[in-house]
Amino acid sequence: HLQGRKKMALEYYFKALKLNEKAGNSKANIGRVLSNISNVYRDIGDLEKAQHYNKKAIVNHLEVNDLDGLSVCYFDEGAMCEDQNKYKEGLKKYLKALDYAIKIGDKAQISSIYYNIVNVYLKIEDQETSPLVLDNAFLVEELELSENFLKVVQNYSLQEMLEKSIKYSIESGDNYNLAYSYLVMGKLKHKQNKYNDGTLFLLKAYDV
Known about the structure:
mainly alpha, elongated
């Protein structure tokens, strides 16, 4: 039944895509429809098609410099990399998403990206013996991110990112992001062997 609804959603989105293209609507609108198509394919487990349509969405958003659309698309790219256990690649996508979100000042989006960055860091540390450092070389040489972005995040610790995530979630009234920020903070505290603090944050997540 659920799969049937997903297929119906795809039909509507493809119709919307054709109508937008025929009407000559903005690339930003077309990009958003492509993002929706990508999300449905991800939901039904077809990551190849999901990434294909997400990349097409990125092309459309780039053509009109739609920073909001680009932030969303790169965030989705990061999530799809995580689905495939490609954590370092996912981290790069999340950082690009964060760069765009900071430029437009979207606190809800920034909050969501921060806790996903920390979460993927913890997954990388589980896989490798040496921790991955968010240093200038990684940010500049591998990602070529904006100078403003570097000033904002290059010196943040993982805990500071989560503190920002919690702060922005509260300011934007986003309980979903707040709950996940508390959850990831709990995981980070447990990773640091601060079990009492970690449990308190997990309980906060549950209460939200």
